[in-house]
Specification:
Elements lengths: L1 E6 L10 E7 L5 E6 L15 H7 L15 E3 L2 E7 L6 H8 L5 E6 L9 H16 L3 E5 L5 E3 L5 E2 L7 H4 L21 H5 L2 H21 L4
Parallel strand pairs: 5-6, 6-7
Antiparallel strand pairs: 1-2, 2-3, 4-5, 7-8, 8-9
Helix pairs in contact: 2-3
């Protein structure tokens, strides 16, 4: 079982809490953890200012410590790439996670802030590209929807409904079971191998065409 929790550094070296994905094995023991890396600006941290000053000015705000980097939650031989909240819409970060030889991606999200708006569907719409880019399945558990299974081709299956706790009140548990293909962890797609090279080539091509057009419009010397 993988679930989200707010955790603390037991050594006390880090004074602020972490937004953590925790893996429990079949005996109920912690088999792995992952701390969120890309925190939501002003929701989970304030940039460029001292956190203590920020929290003193805005007492209802929060500050979450930053995780060390992409991680792996391993259960037996299966390696899962954990992504917390909006990390599943960040192509470069997910590419780093995929490079750790994972079989599948797992995303834990709290979209309750947005209620029954377009945001849950937009979030899912952006997340499916991560499965396509790496040809690996993505399982999303979203507390108020949309929870879904995205197969390696980007098709979303078993979508749960979106609820708003402020309007609908407490809801019964909702979910699904699905067989997820464990893809070859060492396989790399073209994007996995080259990253943003294609984007760079496109920009270079546009710059080259603009230069040619400008030269063509100049009067002959």
């Amino acid at each position: 079982m993988i679930f989200g929790a707010v955790t603390r550094d037991p050594t006390g070296e880090e004074t602020y809490p972490f937004n953590t994905a925790i893996l429990l094995d079949r005996d109920g023991r912690v088999a792995g953890t992952y701390d969120k890396v890309y925190r939501l600006m002003f929701g989970e941290y304030a940039p460029l200012v001292d956190p203590q000053w920020y929290l003193a000015q805005v007492p209802s705000a929060s500050h979450i410590a930053q995780g060390a980097g992409p991680g792996v939650l391993q259960h037996e031989q299966w390696r899962l790439g954990p992504l917390v909240c909006y990390e599943d819409i960040l192509p470069r970060f997910v590419r780093e996670a995929a490079s750790k030889d994972v079989h599948a991606f797992v995303n834990l999200t709290n979209d309750a802030w947005f209620g029954k708006t377009d945001e849950p569907a937009q979030h899912l719409g952006l997340a499916v590209f991560r499965a396509i880019e790496h040809r690996k399945p993505l399982v999303r558990a979203v507390n108020t929807g949309v929870s879904t299974y995205v197969d390696p081709t980007g098709a979303a299956h078993h979508r749960t409904r979106v609820t708003d706790p402020d309007i609908d009140g407490p809801q019964a548990a909702d979910g699904f079971t699905v067989d997820v293909p464990m893809m070859d962890p060492e396989s790399r797609t073209l994007y996995g191998l080259t990253g943003e090279l294609f984007n760079g080539l496109c920009l270079a091509g546009v710059a080259w065409m603009l230069t040619r057009k400008r030269r063509a419009s100049l009067p002959p010397s």
